[in-house]
Amino acid sequence: MAEINPNKIAVIGAGGVGATTAYALMIQGIGSEIVLIDVNRDKAEGEAMDLQHGASFVHPVDVYAGDYSDLADAKLIVITAGAAQRPGETRLDLVKKNTGIFKNIINSITEYNQEGILLVVTNPVDILTYFTWKFSGFPAQRVIGSGTVLDSSRFRTLLSKNCQVAASNVHGYIIGEHGDSEVPVWSMTNIAGTQIKNYCPICSKSCREHELTEISDDVRNAAYEIIDKKGATFYAVALGVARIARAILRDENAVLTVSSLMEGYYGVNDMSLSLPTLINSDGIKQVLELPLAENEEKAFKESAAKLKETIKNITI
């Protein structure tokens, strides 16, 4: 196996999410080498050329199309390939199609690289993160799913608009499944350190409880609405992936709601879900088991049970 290049990223899948992820990495100066790999080599080459032509506007970076042998020394391998979610289709509807695809992808990765970090973006991301861990044989700390990083950003953004305060001053998490059973952690949501229940009475815009419920519903349904309107989501998820990549390549010890193997957290085992997690150059440093409200812990366990049932019905 080749020696790992700590600044090299491989992106598998040059579709909307993969190409936009490469763009987000490039313009933020994350990684000095980015290789795009796709079953359609012409598509990967076209995207790489388009990105290369902006080289004079960004930090030095080598972007090119390659094949699986080119990821041998990659520190981070981002997997965006797979069937896309269609209008009216849930993320879990994709599971059978994409699990089979992933088995082949992971086998191709491990043929050349067994020391990097795998970052799964393809949906249903929690189930595919779990099977990526199973298929790869990698330590659990080096298999990460993008999880509810995007959902948590949507949550903060919608609260920001509702409360008329900058999103950077809104702190809150969505945990559990990246999907219909996701759980908003209202008990820990705060604005500039003030719990949301205490902030609403002093907010310049009078918040009502039903507005907060609508926000969590809007977060849950956001992808469906975007897919209905434009066919796919990729800008925000690409920014979320870039955020995770930055935490890894720059050894940040950042707290992000990524999906990873559950090993007894809130009584959940042997599956992947999202919880606030410390991320650094080793991958997952620690999953944080925070003091959830009773109803939130119950909802998290119900989310786990739903995905567990789906996993049981998958045959590879």
Automatic annotation (TrEMBL):
<protein>
    <recommendedName>
        <fullName>L-lactate dehydrogenase</fullName>
        <ecNumber>1.1.1.27</ecNumber>
    </recommendedName>
</protein>
<comment type="pathway">
    <text>Fermentation; pyruvate fermentation to lactate; (S)-lactate from pyruvate: step 1/1.</text>
</comment>
<feature type="binding site">
    <location>
        <position position="38"/>
    </location>
    <ligand>
        <name>NAD(+)</name>
    </ligand>
</feature>
<dbReference type="GO" id="GO:0005737">
    <property type="term" value="C:cytoplasm"/>
</dbReference>
<dbReference type="InterPro" id="IPR001236">
    <property type="entry name" value="Lactate/malate_DH_N"/>
</dbReference>
<dbReference type="InterPro" id="IPR036291">
    <property type="entry name" value="NAD(P)-bd_dom_sf"/>
</dbReference>
<dbReference type="InterPro" id="IPR018177">
    <property type="entry name" value="L-lactate_DH_AS"/>
</dbReference>
<keyword id="KW-0560">Oxidoreductase</keyword>
<dbReference type="InterPro" id="IPR011304">
    <property type="entry name" value="L-lactate_DH"/>
</dbReference>
<feature type="domain" description="Lactate/malate dehydrogenase N-terminal">
    <location>
        <begin position="8"/>
        <end position="145"/>
    </location>
</feature>
<feature type="binding site">
    <location>
        <begin position="121"/>
        <end position="123"/>
    </location>
    <ligand>
        <name>NAD(+)</name>
    </ligand>
</feature>
<keyword id="KW-0597">Phosphoprotein</keyword>
<dbReference type="InterPro" id="IPR022383">
    <property type="entry name" value="Lactate/malate_DH_C"/>
</dbReference>
<feature type="binding site">
    <location>
        <begin position="123"/>
        <end position="126"/>
    </location>
    <ligand>
        <name>substrate</name>
    </ligand>
</feature>
<comment type="subunit">
    <text>Homotetramer.</text>
</comment>
<dbReference type="InterPro" id="IPR001557">
    <property type="entry name" value="L-lactate/malate_DH"/>
</dbReference>
<dbReference type="GO" id="GO:0006089">
    <property type="term" value="P:lactate metabolic process"/>
</dbReference>
<feature type="binding site">
    <location>
        <position position="98"/>
    </location>
    <ligand>
        <name>NAD(+)</name>
    </ligand>
</feature>
<feature type="domain" description="Lactate/malate dehydrogenase C-terminal">
    <location>
        <begin position="148"/>
        <end position="314"/>
    </location>
</feature>
<dbReference type="GO" id="GO:0004459">
    <property type="term" value="F:L-lactate dehydrogenase (NAD+) activity"/>
</dbReference>
<feature type="binding site">
    <location>
        <position position="17"/>
    </location>
    <ligand>
        <name>NAD(+)</name>
    </ligand>
</feature>
<feature type="binding site">
    <location>
        <begin position="13"/>
        <end position="18"/>
    </location>
    <ligand>
        <name>NAD(+)</name>
    </ligand>
</feature>
<keyword id="KW-0021">Allosteric enzyme</keyword>
<dbReference type="InterPro" id="IPR015955">
    <property type="entry name" value="Lactate_DH/Glyco_Ohase_4_C"/>
</dbReference>
<feature type="binding site">
    <location>
        <position position="156"/>
    </location>
    <ligand>
        <name>beta-D-fructose 1,6-bisphosphate</name>
    </ligand>
</feature>
<feature type="binding site">
    <location>
        <position position="85"/>
    </location>
    <ligand>
        <name>substrate</name>
    </ligand>
</feature>
<feature type="binding site">
    <location>
        <position position="171"/>
    </location>
    <ligand>
        <name>beta-D-fructose 1,6-bisphosphate</name>
    </ligand>
</feature>
<keyword id="KW-0520">NAD</keyword>
<feature type="binding site">
    <location>
        <position position="43"/>
    </location>
    <ligand>
        <name>NAD(+)</name>
    </ligand>
</feature>
<dbReference type="GO" id="GO:0006096">
    <property type="term" value="P:glycolytic process"/>
</dbReference>
<comment type="similarity">
    <text>Belongs to the LDH/MDH superfamily. LDH family.</text>
</comment>
<comment type="function">
    <text>Catalyzes the conversion of lactate to pyruvate.</text>
</comment>
<feature type="binding site">
    <location>
        <position position="68"/>
    </location>
    <ligand>
        <name>NAD(+)</name>
    </ligand>
</feature>
<dbReference type="Pfam" id="PF00056">
    <property type="entry name" value="Ldh_1_N"/>
</dbReference>
<feature type="binding site">
    <location>
        <position position="91"/>
    </location>
    <ligand>
        <name>substrate</name>
    </ligand>
</feature>
<feature type="binding site">
    <location>
        <begin position="151"/>
        <end position="154"/>
    </location>
    <ligand>
        <name>substrate</name>
    </ligand>
</feature>
<feature type="modified residue" description="Phosphotyrosine">
    <location>
        <position position="224"/>
    </location>
</feature>
<feature type="binding site">
    <location>
        <position position="233"/>
    </location>
    <ligand>
        <name>substrate</name>
    </ligand>
</feature>
<keyword id="KW-0963">Cytoplasm</keyword>
<feature type="binding site">
    <location>
        <begin position="82"/>
        <end position="83"/>
    </location>
    <ligand>
        <name>NAD(+)</name>
    </ligand>
</feature>
<feature type="binding site">
    <location>
        <position position="146"/>
    </location>
    <ligand>
        <name>NAD(+)</name>
    </ligand>
</feature>
<dbReference type="Pfam" id="PF02866">
    <property type="entry name" value="Ldh_1_C"/>
</dbReference>
